[in-house]
Amino acid sequence: MINIQYNQNPQEIKLREKSKRPPFKWAGGKDRMFKRYHLAGFFPEAEIETFVDCFAGSSCVSRWVRKNYPEAQIIINDKCLELIDMFRFMQAPTWSYFKRELEVHFLKYANLSVADRKKYYYEQRDIYALQPGLLSPVQQAATLYYLLITGFNGIWQTSQNFNYRYATSAGLQTMNPNGSGFDMNRIKEFSDFISTVALTSDDFEDTGVYASPSTWFYADPPYRCSFSRYNSAGEFTDVDQTRLTEFLNTCADKGAFCTL
User: Which of 1, 163, 206, 213 fits a 20 to 30 Å CA distance from 107?
Assistant: First the structure.
């Protein structure tokens, strides 16, 4: 049994390593917050056995954990099934199929003008959201990835008109097709990471099965106030915020280390 403690004295905090940034854009991602989190004593002093990312999003924080606790079991959970399904196809068993489909989009992007890239984006978005049956599951995953890196500022917007699937507007479409956003080696590194984790798309309370004195729960829930719906899992209400607080208190009572 592990008694997890954290250190609030920045002068005594063990040096932690920052992992690479996620290869796709994600509004609200914590990549730039690493130093602030680290100095605030975010990382437990002891080794942990299980890390549960209750609202994983781009999985930025989970990558920090993999870098600094390489033996930990990592549970990536997000109620957005579209996102989790994309991650599943990025894992090792289906990586080659995902890569092949993604390369089709990348080649198309490289050979189009900016105006035509925007047209292509909306064509693909509308097929993905309104006619997903025209695409195989792996094509849906690759198309979503393409939309995420070429969409507007990494924001996830959806609406009833798009079957509550990804519906964000196009970005500027001026990214360099030879730049980091299209770097397949960088994407493969993310695939290697995502292949080491367990993926779930459940309500956060369902992750309570992992609660123990050697478990670390991290919760970064959807923003309380926003003018748009940023995820395809529905709204996260004040009732849910209260439910989350009670859930983390219950996990802490079981000895788990919990951070918000």
Answer: 163
Q: In this structure, which amino acid lies at residue 207?
A: T
pLDDT tens per residue across span 168-209: 999 999 999 999 999 999 999 999 999 999 999 999 999 999
pTM of the model: 0.89
How far apart, in whole angstroms, are the C-alpha atoms of residue 6 and residue 39?
11
Is 207 part of a structural domain of the chain? no
Sign of CA dihedral 139, 175, 107, 94: negative
Q: Which domain holds residue 165?
A: 84-192
- Biggest distance spanned by C-alpha atoms of the chain: 59
Total domains in the chain come to: 2
Which one, of 86, 238, 89, 222, lies nearest residue 166 by Cα?
A: 86
Residue ending a domain, among 192, 227, 251, is 192
Structure tokens at 188: 């493969």
Residue 114: both structure tokens together: 């900016």
Same domain, 236 and 186: no
Helix (H) or strand (E) holding 123: helix 114-130
Instruction: Mark whether 177 and 99 lie in a shared domain.
Output: yes
Is there a domain that residue 73 lies in?
Answer: no
| Nearest-angstrom CA–CA distance, 36 and 148 | 27
Q: Is residue 43 part of a domain?
A: no
Spatial contact of 101 and 236, defined as CB atoms under 8 Å apart: no
Last residue of a domain, one of 146, 162, 192: 192
DSSP E strand stretches across the chain? 50-53, 73-77, 198-200, 215-218, 257-259
217: nearest Cα among 12, 72, 40: 72
